[in-house]
Amino acid sequence: MKQYPPIPTVGDDDAPAFAGHRWLLEAVEGSPLRFQLQASGAIRFGGERRVYRDDDAVPRECRRAVQHVRERLDREALRAAVPDVTALTFVGWATHRERIDYEWARLPPFLGFDVLAADGGPRPPDAVESIFDRLGLDPINAVEREVHGRDFDPDSYAFPASAWYDGPVAGVLIRDKHGGCARLPNDELSVAPAEPIGAEDPESLADAVATERRFEQVATRLRDRGQEATVDRLCDGLLADVYREEHGRLFTDGNIEESALRTAVVRRAQRYLGG
Questions:
Q1: Which pLDDT belongs to residue 36?
Q2: pTM for the full model?
């Protein structure tokens, strides 16, 4: 699996000199996530710097994105499109909470923004968007397409509204058709830091996060895929949602372990199914 180079910020020494028209993409908060389909049909995942050896190595806040890619990727469409599926590395964002409380039910857990080939040059943004669409995954939201260089000044750029919550974008990714990519952050974005979830023990933390609404969301996803809502599936899905939506608000005091929280959530999943 190819490694994706770090994305510089506009104005950095390593920022590219863009050529031709630009695409402006909404920079949603989260973490870089790459994946590669193996010949066996399994999907290999990695972050910005390392490949995850197994599911336990995936950061908690990225687990919902991993689930999403496994559920949505059209493996047959990919196999039909290329002779060797392992020659492609797909790059995107695992969306999760940092500062912004997005509308999580609408915001996809994974947004794709690039495709790397083992050999060959960069793909233009419109081709990348089409590839993710054909494979059943959401591409990153394009704020503006084909902007002429003379019409874009990063120093006076007016950041638009986000597609995923009632507020401005966290920034934009600027891309051209030659592989150039840089991030322009919205330095004037004003979002209050997320308050930690006040919970002194696993039971009270589970009471706060393992809600009826979240169990119902997970059960609906399982039903839509034709899967039974078992205790383990409900628990895995709910915790993946919680780690994504509440990242940075959990385990803030270091006294509650993930295993203890899972045990408390299992009991609530059993009650949910029993009810």
A1: 97
A2: 0.93
